[in-house]
Amino acid sequence: MFKNIKRILSLSTAMVVATSSLAMAEPSAELVDAAKAEGMLTTIALPHDWCGYGAVIDGFKKKYPEIQVNELNPDAGSADEVEAVKANKDNKGPQAPDVVDVGLAFGPQMKAEGLLMPYKVSTWDEIPDSIKDAEGHWYGDYYGVMSMIVNKDLVTNTPADWSDLQKPEYNGQVALAGDPRASNQAILGVLAAGMASGAAAGKDAGEAGLKFFAELNKAGNFVPVIGKSGTLAQGSTPIVVAWDYNALSWKDTLAGNPPVDVIVPESGVLAGVYVQGISAYAPHPNAAKLWMEYLYSDEGQTLWLAGYCHPARFNAMSKAGKIPQDLLDKLPPAASYEKAYFPTLEEVDANKAAVTSGWDTVVGANVQ
């Protein structure tokens, strides 16, 4: 899911009483003092309009005004971040990133290459085991789930699940938000559809997803146009399968013209996650640790949610009643996300191979 490769990707929930002592933990005074003494944090690839990062960075600055935030190349992708860490191993200057925010596949890769230092934030236990390295070299920060955005001027009945898309009433209306031969978002959309049929994530679901879209195409329901906010509004793609954070952002942009619904399907709820890590060569390791503590605090997680990216602690915070109601009201029901499935790297790779190699022969629709 995510940003360039990084926009693989893309998180919601509540705000009152904490039931976990870990969730309420504050960084130690020693860490705060050490970070302030370093006086700087260098980030990379964090555009302010992505997942609410502008507000996140401003929040950190406000809480720790003694620490200057040095932002490198906001529009970089995950691969660029990896190269920046490698290129600055011996450089303690302002071009060396302290922290990275990368697509899921890059966390294990960077650990294997010795590019990340382990650190477990105080809210560690509320980060799902399936999206974190047991030793703390990398851990999921936020995620999105595959959703459907629907133009209500043109679609009378909003589909509730993948199987609904096969109904005759959706003739000429269903699109993917990318070319499934090349777009990660579209490739994973096929995976989600295959999982909804009961197939296991990976090669099996990829093949089942291809069969699903082949049937949609044969019935005339599938539109071979890359779906985006403009095509949704114009009516050429009245139903678009896209990450929820993209769909919700489009909803804001469209501002009711046309009115839209954003729904998470009842089955095949697929999540795409990004991960955080601290460079093994960070010039400001204590500021990096403090940044991580902020990101995984209730405040940091809520700010990501305001940017429509579900924070890693979403389910725990939701159950603890810690998410502002006004944010929840903008999102699909929290219960929809409890069913989210986080595929393994092996499953993602196996699905990608099946979809990209089989789309032309199985589905035969030239998406562009």
Structural overview:
- Helix 5 packs across helix 6 (203-219) and helix 6 packs parallel to helix 14 (345-363).
- The strands form two sheets. Strands 3, 4, 5, 6, 7, 8, 9 and 10 form an eight-stranded mixed beta sheet that branches. Strands 1-2 form a two-stranded parallel ribbon.
- It has 368 residues and is α+β, with helices and mostly antiparallel strands.
- It has helices spanning 29-38, 53-63, 78-87, 106-112, 184-196, 203-219, 229-234, 244-254, 285-295, 298-306, 314-319, 325-328, 334-338, 345-363, and strands spanning 40-44, 68-72, 99-103, 116-117, 139-151, 174-176, 239-243, 260-263, 271-279, 310-311.
- Helices cover 38% and strands 14% of the residues.
